[in-house]
């Protein structure tokens, strides 16, 4: 029977992509240093490389670097106060015109989640910090964002990701819990 090992094989420990995944943390405090256009472009390329149901790619991204807009967003979003100090933020939205219909009409949420994780990992790989702040499905969070950023009915604000250079180094949290792994079925 398959056994899950507690220690990582050495070849995995030396893999930069794998280590990027294991060392990514949520960063909520940033320096004043701007995020370069090259870094933002790389981050957005990574976002769009995410998988999506039937390759619909139902995402749209709004990049916000206007200080006043970032402060307004921080004022109205209870879990995105750090946006006021971030040099930039990316709003991930679902585009209703590219959402599957019928039984799979909510797969856009998974697709936007995959794009979001790619944003977080890409930012970390570039030495930046980022944090996923939830908007969807909370109307009281989504509506003010739509108003502030002049978003029409075609887009659904999914989350806001403040991005910047971390103010300080963050300790890595070990999230490994082998007791949550089950082989073939629940015991």
Characterise this structure.
- The protein is of the alpha+beta class.
- The chain has one domain: NADH Oxidase (3-Layer(aba) Sandwich), CATH 3.40.109.10.
- Helix content is 34%, strand content 15%.
- It has six helices and five strands; from the N terminus they run αααβαβαββαβ.
- The protein has helices spanning 10-13, 16-23, 37-48, 67-76, 107-125, 139-148, and strands at 59-64, 88-95, 129-130, 133-134, 155-164.
- Strands 1, 2, 3, 4 and 5 form a five-stranded antiparallel beta sheet that branches.
- Helix 3 packs antiparallel against helix 5 (107-125) and helix 4 (67-76) packs antiparallel against helix 6.
- The longest helix has 19 residues, at 107-125.
- The radius of gyration is 18 Å and the shape is globular.
């Amino acid at each position: 029977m398959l056994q899950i090992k507690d220690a990582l094989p050495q070849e995995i420990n030396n893999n930069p992509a794998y280590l990027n995944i294991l060392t990514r943390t949520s960063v909520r405090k940033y320096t004043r240093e701007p995020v370069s256009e090259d870094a933002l472009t790389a981050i957005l390329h990574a976002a769009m490389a995410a998988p999506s149901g039937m390759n619909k790619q139902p995402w749209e991204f709004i990049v916000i670097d206007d200080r006043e807009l970032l402060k307004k967003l921080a004022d109205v979003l209870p879990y995105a106060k750090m946006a006021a100090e971030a040099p930039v933020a990316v709003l991930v939205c679902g585009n209703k015109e590219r959402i599957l219909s019928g039984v799979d009409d909510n797969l856009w949420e998974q697709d936007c989640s995959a794009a979001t994780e790619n944003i977080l990992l890409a930012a970390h790989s570039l030495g930046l910090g980022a944090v996923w702040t939830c908007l969807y499905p909370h109307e009281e969070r989504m509506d003010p964002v739509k108003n502030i950023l002049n978003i029409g009915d075609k887009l659904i604000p999914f989350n806001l990701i403040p991005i910047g250079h971390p103010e300080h180094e963050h300790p890595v949290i070990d999230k490994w819990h082998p007791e949550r792994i089950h082989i073939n079925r629940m015991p």
